[in-house]
TrEMBL record:
Gene3D superfamilies: Homeodomain-like, Jelly Rolls. It comes from Ethanoligenens harbinense (strain DSM 18485 / JCM 12961 / CGMCC 1.5033 / YUAN-3). Residues 184-282 form the HTH araC/xylS-type domain. Coiled coil: none annotated. This is Transcriptional regulator, AraC family. GO terms for molecular function: DNA-binding transcription factor activity; sequence-specific DNA binding. Keywords: DNA-binding, Transcription, Transcription regulation. It holds the Pfam family AraC_binding. InterPro entries: AraC-bd (IPR003313), Homeodomain-like_sf (IPR009057), HTH-like (IPR037923), HTH_AraC (IPR018060), HTH_AraC-typ_CS (IPR018062), RmlC-like_jellyroll (IPR014710), Tscrpt_reg_AraC-type_HTH (IPR020449). The keyword Transcription regulation applies. The keyword Transcription regulation applies.
Length: 288
């Protein structure tokens, strides 16, 4: 079960804060990356296994995990209950404020992939800053946006001072970005074509890789085979349809690309741990 408990999202504001509750073990989200975001996970209860750049990390409360721009990542809940906050800092929007010399000296190198910050962070100061942002978001008193922005700049200062991991030349950064963009293109292609069969040849062509190399790299990067990734996405889409009550099980299966209702039921049960019929009898709050 996945609940969104607290939410601050405004496309005109450079920071979003979302609180999540997961009440069963399993995947948190599929592998993906962000073009313009610096993303921070703050775990307040439970344990999780997080994967980024082919690195596995065991996480438990009160750990902090930072995901740099263009870092491929995915996660799994490793406990019966997991609570965590997701902070997204829009580097492009933050840079548009033109706060000299911060934009040119710090934000632009971060946005352009010239600087990478440490991923797994143990720092009480940073945890305290994240808590302050959460409290400001919950209370939403006059001026809370200023307070959150102040925390963001204080946070970035602490990260640059004590958790700066790597610096790259523009040429090397461009090479890394091209490599990760291959998979971003594949994810986008799958999102647009999941309702039909996607062959290994198609996906490897989109990634500009040989089929064998693509298989190895895709599994290393996402923790899944291509078929597993596509099927999980299809089930996720079918769950949304069933939650909306706009169709029955057969119609949901056909809408997401399954021609065989029996096969759909087996795949559905694999990911949802129950049949579609049992799912419809429950409260329909389950999400992948």
């Amino acid at each position: 079960m996945d609940h969104t408990l607290m939410k601050l999202t405004d496309i005109s504001f450079p920071v979003s804060i979302i609180e999540h509750l997961k009440t069963r073990p399993g995947p948190l989200f599929d592998a993906h990356l962000h073009e313009h975001y610096l993303q921070i996970f703050y775990f307040t209860y439970g344990k999780a296994n997080m994967y980024y750049n082919q690195t596995a990390c065991n996480i438990q409360s009160p750990d902090v995990l930072l995901i740099n721009r263009h870092e491929l990542h995915y996660g799994e809940n490793a406990s019966s209950e997991l609570r965590y906050f997701v902070f997204r800092i829009d580097l492009r929007l933050l840079s548009s404020y033109h706060i000299a010399p911060c934009s040119q000296k710090y934000l632009e190198p971060l946005e352009n992939g010239l600087v990478f910050l440490q991923n797994h962070i143990e720092n009480q100061n940073i945890s305290a800053m994240l808590k302050r942002m959460i409290e400001e978001c919950k209370k939403r008193q006059d001026g809370y946006e200023f307070e959150i922005l102040a925390c963001v700049f204080e946070l970035l200062g602490e990260l640059f001072r004590n958790h700066k991991e790597k610096s790259y030349t523009p040429k090397y950064s461009e090479m890394l970005m091209k490599k990760t963009k291959r998979f971003a293109d594949v994810f986008d292609y799958i999102e647009k074509n999941y309702t039909r069969d996607i062959s290994l040849a198609e996906a490897s062509t989109v990634a500009h890789m040989s089929e064998g190399y693509f298989c190895r790299m895709f599994r290393q990067s996402t923790g899944r085979t291509l078929t597993d990734y596509v099927n999980r996405l299809r089930i996720e889409k079918s769950v949304l349809l069933l939650n909306q009550g706009v169709c029955n099980v057969t119609e949901a299966a056909m809408s997401v690309g399954f021609d065989d209702i029996n096969y759909f039921s087996r795949v559905f049960k694999k990911y949802m741990k129950q049949s579609p019929a049992n799912y419809l009898q429950n409260d329909r709050k389950y999400f992948l």
